[in-house]
Amino acid sequence: MNARILWLVLGSIGVVLGALAVCHVGPGVAFAALLKGSLGTPNGITKSLENTTPLLLAGIAVFLALRAGLFNIGAEGQFLVGALACTAVALKFPGVVGIVLGTVAAIAAGAAWAWPAGAIKAYRGGHEVITTIMLNSVATLLTGYMVGSGPMRAGGGDTTTASLTDATRLPAVIHSGAFSLNIALPLAVAMTAALGWWLRKTVSGYELRAVGANPTAALYAGVDPRKTAVRAMLASGAVAGFAGAVQVLAYEGRFYAGFSPGYGFDALGVALLAGESALALIPAALLFGVLAKGALNLQFVHVPKGITTVILALLILIVAAVRAKGVKKVA
Amino acid sequence: MGGYASERSGVVNIGLEGLMLTAACTAAVAAPHFGPGGALAIALLVTVVISVLHWMATQIYRIDHVISGMVLNLIAAGATNFVASLFNASSSGVPHFPVVLYEGLAIVLPFLTWAYVRFTRGGLRLVATGADPDKARLAGIVPERVRLAALVVAGLFTGLAGAMLVAYTDGFTNDMTAGRGYIALAALVVGGWRPLPTLAACLAFGILTALRVQYAGVPVLGVMPPSEFWAALPYLATVIALAGLLGRGRTPAGLGKP
Amino acid sequence: MSAAVSLKGITVRFGAVHALEGVDLEVTAGTLHAVVGENGAGKTTLMRVLYGAQRPTEGAVAVEGAEKHFSGSAEAIAAGVGMVSQHYAIIPELTCLQNLMLGAEGGVMIDLSAARERAEGLAKRMGFQFEWDRPASDLGPASAQKLEILKLLWREARIMILDEPTAMLSPADGEALFGSLRTLVDAGATVILVTHRLPEVLVHCSWVTVLRGGKRVADKAVSETNASELAGLIVGEAGYVLDSEDVRVREVRDRDGLATLVLRNLTVRDHRGHEALRDACLEIRVGEVVGVAGVDGNGQRELFQAIVGAAKQSGTIVLDGEDVCGNSPAGRIARGLRLIPEDRHEQGVVESWSLEENSALGLQRRAGLAQGWKIDQAGRRSWAQRLADRFKTKHGGLGLPMASLSGGNQQRFVAARALESEPKLLLAFSPTRGLDIKGAADVYAAIRERAQAGMAALVVSFDLDELLLHCDRIVVLNHGKLTEPPSRDRDAIGREMVA
What we know:
- The structure holds 3 protein chains of 3 kinds.
- By secondary structure, chain A is mainly alpha-helical.
- Chain A has a domain at 42-47 and 59-272.
- In chain A, 72% of the residues lie in helices and 3% in strands.
- Chain A is built from 13 helices and 2 strands.
- Chain A has helices at residues 3-22, 27-39, 42-67, 75-92, 96-124, 128-147, 184-201, 203-213, 215-220, 225-252, 263-274, 281-298, 306-323, and strands at residues 172-176, 179-182.
- Chain B is mainly α.
- Chain B contains 10 helices and no strands.
- Chain B has helices at residues 2-8, 16-60, 65-86, 99-119, 121-131, 133-138, 143-169, 180-190, 195-215, 227-243.
- The two termini of chain B are 22 Å apart.
- The longest helix of chain C has 16 residues, at 171-186.
- Chain C has a 6-stranded mixed beta sheet with strand order 6-7-8-3-9-10, with helices on both faces. A 6-stranded mixed beta sheet of chain C has the order 16-19-20-13-21-22, with helices on both faces.
- In chain C, α14 (407-420) runs parallel beside α15.
- In chain C, a hairpin with a 2-residue loop joins β14 and β15.
């Protein structure tokens, strides 16, 4: 292990311990609170896994774009518009029909929301980080309006749509006592594996990765970097929209203001942690999901939940530093 | 101008948002205890430290600039949340310097920056490092040092922005920067990485943001747009500005290179 | 006479690659000293040590009698050492004057008028002329080099290193350069010339040091040696004769043969909107190897990109009988276009990918490497093995990243990839960049062998001698115009390059 990396790790641990010290809380207590909140009870585990699902799906979206060399920070906005679109359609068509059509609507909405960023980057060179973040804000405002003073609001005091019927929801596969696992999570895991397979074993996956790794070399190798970039963003947005649909159909049953506590942003962290391996998205999403649930418990020991964000960010930094190390010449 | 300093030396700085947020939070938390002057000093110090972290991540650990920037934004979001709840940062009544002071600085700084780049040795080396760090190294310049200075300055200027926010809204709330850091970056791009055009772009974005206050409750073309529409205007404008050909072709050639 | 430079026991290692092993070098003050060796012998690395741009793993550096430990070029410059590197360190975005004074501005505030005066003075001394406030992107290679020399004078360098200075110049400009160098030496400077071109050494230099494989193998006065002895020392074989023009006479091919490549009125604009290539017309027949000579910056890159399909062009390109103007690179590759690009790092390989993955770059859809939309892993592995064997690429394993290979080995791999994949038209840009003499000879032998089998080739190079040696026909690019000189006379072609 490199000396520099070691310093980084030590420094990070120091920062976290220092922060805890300021709260007058020992690391053991804090850690225990985290674990208890997330994995200590069947309800906790259920919720942790619930958190993991949108993180994993949105993580797939961001990961896909990342492999093509694009930073899709807009997963949050794409997630929101996808969820809203799905709700709108599913409310009109109850039952399985609603599930299917709602999902399609979500995919379309998400893709449409991502398209401007992709096109602007490919054909105008405008950095997609800025455009996607801007579109996020627009999405938040738009969906907020829809359930606020706009047409989607169900009557009553809350900024929310009406709820979907039970028939228009995705079922749980395991249900025993307080623990329940929706079909959404296994579905997400399967999608992750499929993405990994596609990237490594197909020609089009190879070409996408080439564009992400070296666009000029890809061009000389017969791949059109601009078309690939746009397609990658569209696909990424579509998956993020899909994530929104799943969230509605599996867990929420409706759309409301504040629907996403930042799944799209955390998805970036998930994708960065995963690095080059699609399968690594699964443990990364799990980590984020568990910590998010556990963080709520931290309040009971007087530690603000912002500390988990810092921990995860430092982890990403360390992992990125390790990956950025150079390659030694052997010949 | 903070973004200018950083990017002109070749370091992509997506972390402006995080820097602003850090400065705002620190200023708000420190002001009741140390008064406006002390708070400003502390805020600037902390912001510079974070900025130097970005320098370390990109120059020493050679992490991708965009990743480092986003990570720092995350750290800032988490840390400010942490600090704000811990120290009960109030959302009103925080002592601060008058807003006009900051506004004056905002106008003067671009001119000073322009003059610095044009007439001093440091300015030439800054532009050279951003254009081609390897060739600059052969001329005897140490790009890492130039970039360190640049990022310290970036921290200072952006810190001022964060402190100003607190002055303007009289307190701290979570995520109060609301994307301004990214809009600033867009203004830099639209302005072609030059101080004075960037100033113009910032003014344009500022006007758009102000429209919300002016026109709330006023119908447009016979239709009453929701308040969210005005709020969304600056963000939409940023996207459209980047979609236009403004600023393209003036990117410092060494931007993002280690 | 005193030693201006004294290097003792210099060793430089990059991981497992030994760039230099225990090299000594002593340069007498006021002389023109040559350091020769083929590509990869370590000449540039040794000079970078002297210039402070490379820390030696072991060894001592002394300048004008004083021992020095440079931690950066600034210290070397302060000690009176200056270097003009092979790919000039001129920054295009800055003006000529800014480039000149970068790093030695003479104070915190920049006094433009004083600087301009001093610059004019120095330029007059050497007989150069510059428009100081024009962007340096306007300069051609010869002018850029002159500016680099002025940079050395600006910093009052007493020891000047020039790395492959004539590589990018036309023969006439090369002669002019040596005139300038003579002026400098007569004024008391010490000039170290790094080159692989023996004629220059024999005519202009007084002392020569030979490096081979990172070690010093000879150090003698030019008057006491000759071309064949030096050639033998460089390559390591006594009595080695560098190919001369008459050794290889190509059969004039059937003049009525089919044309593989036809260019008609091809015009390409560069990113500033200027016409970098104007109305180019060219026909290459099956089995012909055509060389494109010219000074860098006259449209070579635009020509290359146009044929690849990566540039906006007007005019016609016919490849293997089919009009490919509307085709993307993928379409042209499918018709048999193969590339050896100029910069393998930027355009040819993905450094973080394994050799196996790189072997399919450009060919990923071909049978044997893919089954429909799926990748054929086994096929790809055996393909990668075949490529590595072709030019004896040294590597640590096919699964290791491309970055683990030295530049020369990467180039071997890229060349093999283009030549082994049934090329109909080979488009090569400086195909032997980074290769030693043996490697370069192997690549050209392979090109000729393929040509016999029906491949057509277009080779762009800044090395006129290389083209004269290996190509059937030579065309010249000058300011975007493509012309074909009537004879293979080196001087005549040289003149057309700068006409």
